[in-house]
Amino acid sequence: MRSLIGILDLSTKEIDDLIRTAQDIIAHPEAYREKCKGKKLATLFFEPSTRTRLSFEAAMYELGGNVLGFSEASSSSVAKGESVADTIRTVNCYADIIAMRHPKEGAPLVASVKSQVPIINAGDGGHNHPTQTLTDLLTIYREKGRLQDLTVGFCGDLKFGRTVHSLIEALSRYSGIRIVLISPDELRLPEYMQNKLSALENVTFTETKDLEEAIPKLDILYMTRVQKERFFNEADYIRLKDSYILTPEKLAEAKEDMSILHPLPRVNEISVEVDDDPRACYFRQALNGKFIRMALMLMLLEIQ
Ligand code: NCD
Predict the structure, then answer these.
(1) C-alpha 93: how far from its chain's center?
(2) Measuring from atom 7 of ligand 1, which residue has the nearest CA?
(3) 241 and 231 in contact (C-beta within 8 Å)?
(4) Topology annotation, domain 130-285
(5) Looking at the domain that runs over 7-128+287-300, which CATH code has it been given?
(6) pLDDT digits (tens, 9 = 90+) for 24-64
(7) CA distance 220 to 201
(8) Residues 6+ apart with CB under 8 A from 253
């Protein structure tokens, strides 16, 4: 029995297999409609979500299975003081696989130790978000046809953005990856991640505060929201929230085939005028999230 807690739990070969399965699902959805008949997914969301929870649920329905769960801690026994371990042991009685989002870093790992069924980390605090990373990798693959030899700019909240942390970890296993970190000083990539990157030979990284300066070199621009809920101090959030706003004017300097990704939700960091630009991939990315989660659940449930 396997869980998915961090993206490095999967080998690059397994990621290739998941991308292949997702593409087959896209091409032949009818072949997958009964694969999870009789199976139940529990979605345990202790933090807000639109795409992650709904794409997991849509994924299970499209595989012919069923879904149960809760979308806020206040509607579960957690509000009465139940521990994560007890919640998981209970849900094990009712579900075959569990997707869990929690504000505390490491909570899904604790859950996986207690669980008899696969646990999927659907986001733990400012730490990791491996299924968003699978979504991002499928999107990059579908847009660019490769996962190597890419210059990828990460812009915005690189400190608290868990999707950034997981995607950087994933990309750092491919060759010819050049990472450009674009953030204000206060929201720089955490030192522990910078140290990991410095130790790698196949990846180079540079840091800048200037999106306009960085944009012409990029093959992928990964925009992120400033993570309001992780700030201790509202004044800091207000000062930093509009650090970067991508507009059609700024895109004028970008490559014609640069892909713009964003895990969403967007607040202000991409102007809606960018949405009609063919380089804007973020809603296609949200759709890819459903297909890759279908592939992932088939893998973890060991269904061919
Ligand atoms: C992200 C998350 O929850 O970390 N959203 C998502 O899952 N698509 C990004 C964010 O909330 O900014």
Answers:
(1) 28
(2) 52
(3) no
(4) Rossmann fold (3.40.50)
(5) 3.40.50.1370
(6) 999 999 999 999 999 999 999 999 999 999 999 999 999 99
(7) 21
(8) 212, 215, 216
| DSSP SS3 for 67 | strand
Give the Cβ contact number of residue 256 at 10 Å: 6
Cα 125 to ligand 1 centre (Å): 10
> Comparing C-alpha atoms, which of 105, 14, 44, 55 is closest to residue 263?
55
For residue 77, is pLDDT > 90?
Answer: no
Angle at the Cα of 282 from the Cα atoms of 128 and 303, rounded to 5 degrees: 60
- Structural contact between residues 150 and 182, judged by C-beta atoms closer than 8 angstroms: no
* Farthest-apart Cα atoms in the chain, separation: 55
Q: Which strand (E) or helix (H) includes residue 220?
A: strand 220-223
- Euclidean distance between the first and final Cα of the chain, in Å? 15
Query: Which residue has its alpha carbon closest to ligand 1 atom 11?
Result: 265
Which residue spans of the chain are classified as CATH 3.40.50.1370? 7-128+287-300, 130-285
Mutate to test the pocket of ligand 1, among 132, 136, 227, 241 (most ligand atoms within 8 A of CB): 132
| Residue matched to tokens 């992780």 | 230
pTM of the predicted protein model:
0.97
Tokens 């060759």 -> residue = 175
